[in-house]
Design goal:
heterodimer, A: 382 residues, alpha+beta, Rossmann fold, 2 domains, 20 strands, globular, B: 464 residues, mainly alpha, 3-stranded antiparallel β-sheet, 21 helices, 67% helix
Chain lengths: 382, 464
C-alpha cells in the first residue's frame, strides 16, 4: 500500500459541529448503568478519542450520540441543538461500525451512495458523488466490485467513504481499526487523521488502544466504569494524569501504593512498603491520605544520581522492543520496576545482576488511591 | 469429488450417491414418467376394439340366456323345480319402460323377458369420441349391417341374429385390435376432459345473479365460461384448476405478508432471550397433527360452532352463518395450516443478518421502509423464495383441508378433482392426465417465480 493522495481530489463541502453531553446517564432496561452522569464537550472539527477498556461504556456514549440509545437522563446537543426524540436517521452524524457493516449485496459504489439514496438523490448524481468519495479514500477503480472482493483496508475505506457521503457534521468511529493487522492499522491511523483534517468533520473515535488514541487525537477522554476520568490532549493525559486509572491505563507505569506523610508546595512525600518516595501532586492530597505514586518506565535511570527516589534492584529480564530496551527488575522489598532505555546501539546499559535505579521526583506523579487498570496478566486470568 | 472421497471415505460417498440416484429415480423420475405414460394412453374400455369385444360378449351372453329361456319354456316343470331360467345376475334386470308399455298395449308383445345383454347386442353402438365431435356409430364406421335383437321377433330368430352379431363382432374386434396395435399408441384425448366445456343448467334468474358476480366476469373474460346456443357453458376442469391455483397463490401471498413481520420481529427486533418465547409460541400449535388441526377448525366454523355460538350470543346474527359453504373459510384454514412453512425459512435466513447492517442503514438516513427494501429483503430473499415455494406447493396440493372443511358443499379444489378422477370415476388415465398437467403447471409457476425473484438454486443453500 503506497502513499495515498488523500489531499488531492475534490474537497466535499463539510463542516464539523460540536457535541455536548449534559448530565447524560444511560441505564439499560436490565438495570445496568453503562454511563454514569457525564458532562462532556467535544469541539467542532476536532478529532476526539474516547479511550477505555472494554465494557467501560464508551460505545454506549457513541450510540447515544448517534441516536440508537436515548439517554436515561440528561441531553445530547449537536451543534447546540437538543437531539432528544430524533432517531439515528435524523441526526447529522454517521457511524462507522466496528465490523464496518458494509452491505454485502450491493456493489461498492451503491454502498457509498446509500445515504444519498435515502435522501432521494438521483442515480446519476449518486454515482458521481460516490466516485468523488471513492477518490477521496483512494479507491477510484473499485466502484463496481462487491465488498466481499475487497481487502480489509479497502473495506475500511469504503466504510469511511460511505459515512462521509451523507456529509455528517460528526463522524463516529467505533474501533474501526481493530480488525486490521498492525502495519495496516498504523497506516490507517495516518489516513484517518488526514481525512479528518481535510474534511473538517468532528471525529469521535472510540478505542481501547491507547496507541491509536495518542497518535491521532486532538483530545482524549479516558473512561472507566461509566465515568470519564480525564479529558485532555495526549501530552496532558500521558504526562499529567488526573486519576489513578488514567495514569495506569495510558502507557506503561510503575506504581507504588502508600500513605502521604508530607506535602511541600507541589511535592508530596509518600511512605510505601518499598521506602519513602517523592513526587509531584496536583493539590488534591493532604497528609494521611492513601495515595499511589506513578512513574513512567522511561523516567527511571540507572545509578543513584537522580536524587531522593532510589532502589537497589535485581535484574530479572532484559528484552529488546526495537527502539528501546525493557528491563524488568525487582526490589529487595518485592516491588516490580520496569525500566525503558533508548536503544542507542551502544552498550550503555548494565549487565550486572544487582543494580541501583532512581528517578527524579518531578518526573513522578502522586495521585489519590483509586481503581487502576488491570495488567495483562490480570486480564488473562479473568 | 476427490474432496468428498477424502473427507468421507469411499463407502460413505458411494452410499450417498446411490441414495441420491435411488431417490431421484424411484421417487421423482419414474413416477412422473409412469404418470405421463398413463396420461397419454387412451382408457382401455373406450377403445373401439374394447367396444367391439364387449359387443361380442353381450351377443354371446344373449344367445346363451335365450337358449336357457327356450329350454325352460320347453320344460316348465324343470324350471319350477329350481332350474335356472337366467344364467347370471347380470342377465336379470328390471324390465325397461318400453317393454312395459309394449306389454300394456298387447300389440307386438315381446316374446322373451327383458335381457340387458340382448338389448345391448346391436351393431348400432356409439363409439367413444371427444365431447365436441359428432357421434360415430359402429355399424357406419365399419360397414356392418344394422342388426339388433328385437324382442318381438321369434326367439329362434333372435338367437340367430345374436349369433350373427357375435360372429361379426368377434371378427371385427380382432381386426380393430390389430389395427390398434399397429397404430400410434398414444393420444392426447385424456387431456380433452380437462379442456372440455359443459353446459351449466341455469335458470334465467340464476344466470342474472351469476353474471353480476366478479368471478363470473373474470371467467367470461378468460374464456373459461361462455354462452352457446343460449346455454351457459363452462370449462369446468380448467376453472377448477385455475381457481385452485389462484387460491394457492393468494394463500402464499397472505402467508408471506403475515410471516415476514413475525420472522423479522423474532429474528432481528427482539433480544435473543425473549425471542425464545416468541419462537416457542410459534412452534407449539404445530406440534399437533395436521388433520387434527383441520378438524379443530370444524368445531369453530360449524353451524353450532364456537364462532356462530359467539355471534349469536352477542346478538350479531339470528341464523348461523354457513361458513363451510364459503370458499374464504377453506382459504383461511389453508393459510393457517401451512403458514409455518413460510415462517421458518424466512426466520432462518433473517437470523443470519448482521443487525449492524440495519443500524448502519438507519444511521445513513434510511427510513424503515428503505431498510427493509434494500437490506432485509435482499438478504432474506432465498428464505422468502423457499417459504413461498413450500407454501404454494402445499396449498396447491391441499386435499384434507378443502375436503374436511367444505364436506362437499363447495366446488372442489383441483386436488379433489384428481382424486375423484382416479378413485371415484375410476378413470386413472384421465386422472393421470389431470395430475400430470397439474404437476407441470405448478412446476412452471415455481420456475417463473424463481426467475422473477432472481433467485438461483445456490442461494437456497444460504437458507439453512
Amino acid at each position: 500500500m503506497g502513499a495515498v493522495p488523500i489531499l488531492s481530489g475534490q474537497n466535499p463541502e463539510m463542516h464539523g459541529k460540536d457535541v455536548c453531553l449534559k448530565g447524560v446517564s444511560i441505564t439499560y432496561p436490565n438495570g445496568f448503568t453503562a454511563v454514569k452522569p457525564t458532562d462532556l464537550t467535544i469541539r467542532a472539527g476536532e478529532f476526539f478519542s474516547i479511550l477505555g477498556p472494554s465494557g467501560c461504556g464508551k460505545t454506549t456514549i457513541l450510540r447515544a450520540v448517534s441516536g440508537f440509545v436515548e439517554p436515561s437522563a440528561g441531553k445530547v446537543l449537536i451543534g447546540g441543538e437538543d437531539q432528544r426524540g430524533i432517531g439515528p436517521n435524523g441526526r447529522p452524524t454517521a457511524l462507522i461500525f466496528q465490523n464496518l457493516a458494509l452491505f454485502p449485496l450491493m456493489p461498492v459504489w451503491e454502498n457509498v451512495a446509500f445515504g444519498l439514496e435515502a435522501r432521494g438523490i438521483s442515480r446519476k448524481e449518486r454515482r458521481a458523488r460516490a466516485h468523488d468519495l471513492l477518490e477521496l479514500v483512494a479507491l477510484p477503480d473499485q466502484a463496481e466490485k462487491m465488498p466481499g472482493e475487497l481487502s480489509g483496508g479497502q473495506r475500511q475505506r469504503v466504510a469511511i467513504a460511505r459515512a462521509l457521503a451523507v456529509e455528517p457534521a460528526v463522524l463516529l468511529l467505533d474501533e474501526p481499526l481493530s480488525a486490521l493487522d498492525l502495519k495496516l492499522r498504523q497506516h490507517m491511523r495516518t489516513e484517518l487523521r488526514a481525512i479528518q483534517q481535510k474534511t473538517g468533520v468532528t471525529f469521535i473515535y472510540i478505542t481501547h488502544d491507547q496507541g491509536e488514541a495518542l497518535t491521532m487525537s486532538d483530545r482524549i477522554a479516558v473512561m472507566n466504569d461509566g465515568v470519564i476520568e480525564q479529558v485532555g490532549t495526549a501530552d496532558e493525559i500521558y504526562s499529567d494524569p488526573q486519576s489513578a486509572f488514567a495514569a495506569s491505563f495510558v502507557g506503561e507505569v510503575n506504581m507504588f501504593r502508600g500513605r502521604i506523610t508530607a506535602i511541600e508546595d507541589a511535592m508530596a512525600r509518600i511512605e510505601t512498603p518499598h521506602g519513602v518516595l517523592h513526587g509531584r501532586h496536583n493539590g488534591a492530597l493532604t497528609c494521611g491520605d492513601d495515595a499511589i505514586l506513578f512513574v513512567r518506565p522511561e523516567q527511571m535511570r540507572f545509578g543513584p544520581d537522580a536524587g531522593a527516589n532510589r532502589f537497589s534492584v535485581t535484574l530479572e529480564r532484559r528484552s529488546l522492543e526495537g527502539a528501546f530496551l525493557t528491563f524488568e527488575t525487582r526490589t529487595q522489598t518485592g516491588a516490580r520496576i520496569v525500566i525503558h532505555q533508548t536503544n542507542t546501539g551502544l552498550a550503555s546499559h548494565p549487565v550486572d545482576q544487582t543494580l541501583q535505579v532512581s528517578f527524579a521526583p518531578e518526573t513522578a506523579v502522586v495521585l489519590p488511591d483509586g481503581p487502576v487498570a488491570s495488567t495483562g496478566s490480570e486480564m488473562a486470568a479473568q | 469429488m476427490s474432496e468428498l472421497l477424502r473427507g468421507y471415505g469411499r463407502g460413505l460417498v458411494a452410499l450417498f450417491f446411490a441414495a441420491v440416484v435411488a431417490w431421484s429415480l424411484l421417487l421423482i423420475i419414474l413416477p412422473q414418467l409412469t404418470m405421463l405414460e398413463r396420461a397419454v394412453t387412451a382408457p382401455k374400455r373406450q377403445l373401439d376394439s374394447s367396444i367391439a369385444f364387449q359387443l361380442q360378449r353381450d351377443a354371446q351372453t344373449c344367445v346363451s340366456v335365450l337358449e336357457t329361456h327356450l329350454a325352460a319354456q320347453d320344460a316348465p316343470d324343470a324350471a319350477d323345480q329350481g332350474g335356472m331360467a337366467v344364467p347370471s345376475m347380470s342377465g336379470m334386470a328390471i324390465p325397461s319402460a318400453s317393454v312395459m308399455t309394449n306389454q300394456a298395449t298387447g300389440a307386438d308383445a315381446p316374446v322373451r323377458p327383458y335381457i340387458l345383454q340382448c338389448d345391448r347386442a346391436t351393431t348400432r353402438l356409439r363409439m367413444v369420441r371427444g365431447a365436441d365431435e359428432p357421434p360415430v356409430w359402429l355399424n357406419e364406421l365399419h360397414d356392418l349391417p344394422l342388426l339388433a335383437v328385437t324382442d318381438t321377433a321369434p326367439i329362434t330368430d333372435q338367437m340367430a341374429t345374436a349369433q350373427e352379431i357375435a360372429a361379426l363382432a368377434e371378427e371385427l374386434a380382432k381386426e380393430i385390435q390389430q389395427q390398434e396395435a399397429r397404430a400410434f399408441p398414444y393420444t392426447t384425448s385424456n387431456f380433452d376432459a380437462l379442456l372440455a366445456a359443459r353446459a351449466v343448467p341455469l335458470s334465467a334468474e340464476q344466470r342474472a345473479q351469476e353474471d353480476a358476480k366478479l368471478s363470473d366476469k373474470l371467467l367470461r373474460l378468460t374464456g373459461l365460461r361462455f354462452d352457446r346456443d343460449g346455454q351457459t357453458h363452462e370449462r369446468i376442469g380448467l376453472v377448477t384448476l385455475s381457481r385452485t391455483l389462484v387460491y394457492a397463490m393468494a394463500a402464499t401471498a397472505l402467508a408471506l405478508v403475515l410471516c415476514y413481520p413475525i420472522a423479522f420481529k423474532v429474528a432481528l427486533a427482539t433480544p435473543p432471550e425473549r425471542a425464545v418465547w416468541l419462537f416457542l409460541g410459534l412452534v407449539i400449535p404445530y406440534a399437533i397433527v395436521e388433520l387434527m388441526r383441520v378438524y379443530a377448525w370444524t368445531t369453530i366454523i360449524d353451524n353450532q360452532g364456537i364462532l356462530n355460538g359467539f355471534m349469536q350470543w352477542a346478538g350479531l346474527i339470528t341464523e348461523p352463518v354457513q361458513f363451510k359453504r364459503m370458499p374464504g373459510t377453506i382459504f383461511i384454514v389453508v393459510v393457517y395450516t401451512y403458514v409455518l412453512f413460510m415462517v421458518f425459512p424466512i426466520y432462518n435466513v433473517m437470523s443470519t443478518l448482521d443487525r449492524n447492517q440495519i443500524d448502519a442503514a438507519r444511521d445513513l438516513g434510511a427510513s424503515a421502509l428503505r431498510v427493509h427494501a434494500r437490506i432485509v429483503i435482499p438478504h432474506a430473499k432465498p428464505g422468502i423464495a423457499v417459504g413461498c415455494i413450500a407454501t404454494f406447493m402445499l396449498a396447491a396440493g391441499a386435499f384434507s383441508v378443502p375436503r374436511i372443511i367444505s364436506r362437499g358443499l363447495q366446488s372442489e379444489w383441483f386436488s379433489q378433482t384428481i382424486y375423484n378422477k382416479f378413485f371415484e370415476s375410476e378413470n386413472s388415465n384421465v386422472g393421470a392426465a389431470y395430475s400430470f398437467t397439474y404437476t407441470l403447471v405448478c412446476f412452471l409457476i415455481v420456475g417463473l417465480f424463481m426467475w422473477a425473484m432472481r433467485t438461483r438454486l445456490k442461494d437456497f443453500a444460504r437458507v439453512q
